[in-house]
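Following up on my earlier message about cytidine-5'-diphosphate. Here are the inputs again, as you asked, copied directly from the submission form:
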Amino acid sequence: MLGLNKTQGEHLADTTLTIAVDGPAASGKGTLSRQLAAHFGLNYLDTGSLYRAVALIALNDNIPLDDETALSHLASTLADEVLSDPRLREPGVGEAASKIASLIPVRETLLAYQREKAQTAPGTVLDGRDIGTVVCPNADVKLFVTASSEVRAKRRFDELVSKGQGVTYADIFAEIERRDARDSSRSAAPLIKAADAHLLDTTNLDIEKALDAAVLLVNEAIKTQN
Ligand code: CDP
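Thanks, got it. Here's what our run produced:
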């Protein structure tokens, strides 16, 4: 059960560094966050994988995507292994995850785990939609990573094709637009840039340049705090 049954605080540090990375679908925030975590020697949590994991099990077990009670029970009993299941990255699972993610009881169930992870020494980079606004409103650094819809769809299309999935660019573009609209318009923890987040538009940046820009922003933020 995702370590949720551990005694709260048993491995928490007094001082940790929290980096919140939010942004729309396929904006490159996952790759960037993983690299930021490696650069600064921090833990990494892909919070989208939590919603995707609930969605994957729900799809497999034919649980309706609006059954709040069954889905929040699923969220409270997730096993660590499911978070690395390659099927999590399939487009249908992303779409189902976005439907499930609008349910308040599911979000609340996943909140404690995310916050506990955020405080685990020496600190954590978390990526998602509501990290800077809801999960870690006091994060040391907040980034909002975006790119044009076309560039995001192309990146996701290339990623899925390289994994051997038979997808079309048009379908991926439509799925991303649908998901962004749903994630931005929901009442529970919508996708929105936190007022104090730094905007990082990666439309014209490759991974290396995006990482350089993000490292600069994090170093600046750390310097102004000290
Ligand atoms: O990788 P990608 O940007 O395509 O999606 P993801 O980060 O894996 O998130 C999948 C879905 O989970 C999103 O479309 C959101 O609906 C939901 N999600 C969320 O609501 N809150 C988060 N903190 C993370 C993901």
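One observation from looking it over: The first helix runs from residue 29 to 40. Hope that helps, and feel free to reply on this thread.
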